[in-house]
Amino acid sequence: MIWKKDKRAPCTADPDDSIYPPSTDESNPARVTCLGRGWARTSINAVIFRRDSLTSHLGMQYAAFYGPRGRVVLARRRLGEAAWETERTLHQGGTRDAHNCLSLMADGEGYLHLAWDAHDSPLRYCRGKEPGSLRLGPATAMTGLREKRVTYPEFLRLADGDLLFFYRHGASGNGDLMLNRYHPASRTWSRVQEGLIDGQGRRSAYHQAALDERGVLHLSWVWRETPDVASNHDLCYAQSPDGGRTWLRSDGSRYQLPITAASAEYIRRIPQGRGLINQTSMAVDQRGDPCVATYWTPEGSEVPQYFLVHRRGGRWQTSQVSRRSTPFSLSGLGTKSIPISRPLLLLDRGQAGQTRCHMVFRDVERGHRVSLATCDNLDDPQWRFVDLTREGVGAWEPTHDSVLWLQKGLLHLMVQKVGQGDGEKLERLGPQPVWVLEWQPPA
Questions:
Q1: Which residue, 1, 33, 293, 434, has most beta carbons within 10 Å?
Q2: Strands, sheet with 112-115, edge to edge from the N-terminal-most edge strand
Q3: Where does the sequence pass through the membrane (predicted)?
């Protein structure tokens, strides 16, 4: 069953459930389908660094989430249809820690790949038994090298069907960025970079990656000096034209690897203690110009604001997106309870062919709804704000089907009302329905 706009019906995963789907704004119609009920006492199903929570391949869409008792649940449907088929797997995760999220991707042959339950802990990874199958094999190693202290697993699918896999090896404030590549022809993994970004035992890089239309890999990151999020500082950048083997600065000069704090290209200097968030979002326009969405507190203010840092005309520029008025301080250890989400950035073409920006977010000032900001032209940044839902979604952060967006320009978000206590504390919130919200930008 599918629900459009604010038509209400119980979740099909549990016919006796009285919880309704999120109603959507009449002026920005979206539709939602239900996957089932999931763990919601932490934000583990709804943290932004799930790459991906949803993914598509050859007309099928797949999803992964933690069920009410921490069991890994997979789901699939044919794109355009409403009904989801679900499979409760034998794999379990530590749902009390929101870092232990699930990341999902399909390779060029249609096999699902899943990484989960990683927070400075041994790699947990498995692959589907058949193309398109929801049945997973046992947990296995990738390369077997430096896989004992894994955090932030992230998949990207290349145009040839190979997969890239990023992860941090080491602890917060003391870790290195690793990069593997999966080869469907041999069904094996190989190491591309052994410590692409080296914290030198004194810091770690918190990254986000994106592929452009030409297949160039783009990477941005913040540095963190200690486990305290308040020690986040600066935005840096690198790109690779060959799947991660060679890395360049934005001016074309070549990095000597590994990249360190001394050799990195700094695209925006932001000092420690300014509320700079980590693990955000980046995208690349049709010209190959990268754009990073994040938030920090401007100098002379106590109110964090959303910003874009983007390359235009051969130089890096900063644009403020929001005009928030509610102050908060970002500091401490573990997963934080924060009144705004990290932003998801999406780029497409406007009517005149210029780059159009969409930023998906959640903010206490908008009732914790799923919200969207759109700018038709970064050369004249005027932002329009709308809410895609009428109800709040707790501590939710946006994750989407990145393959579907790149291929068809369709936004499919995984949405669940979740709690998140500060420093991994559990909220008193029972299992909540997990939804896919579908929205298409106007032409």
A1: 434
A2: 103-106, 112-115, 125-127
A3: none
Per-residue pLDDT reduced to its tens digit, 40-68: 999 999 999 999 999 999 999 999 999 99
Residue 343 has a CB neighbour count (10 Å cut-off) of 28
CA distance 407 to 290: 18
Stretch 139-144: mean pLDDT, rounded? Answer: 98
Report d(CA 108, CA 126) in Å as an integer: 16
Instruction: Tell me the pTM.
Output: 0.94
DSSP, collapsed to helix, strand or coil, labels residue 440 as coil
Q: Determine if the peptide bond prior to 258 is cis (ω within 30°).
A: yes
Alpha carbon separation from 104 to 73, 74, 126 (Å, rounded): 11, 10, 10
Q: State the pLDDT confidence band at 21, using cuts at 50, 70 and 90.
A: low
Q: Tell me what the mean pLDDT of segment 179-183 comes to.
A: 99
Residue 333's nearest CA partner among 161, 153, 171, 166 is: 171
pLDDT at 191 over 80: yes
Inter-CA distances, 425 with 95, 96, 180, 231, 337, Å: 11, 8, 33, 22, 9
**Residue type, position 352, single letter:** A
342 vs 292: CA distance, rounded Å: 12
User: For 93-242, where are the E strands, in sequence order?
Assistant: 103-106, 112-115, 119-121, 125-127, 150-157, 163-171, 174-183, 188-198, 204-211, 217-224, 232-240
* Domain range 3-439, CATH class: mainly beta
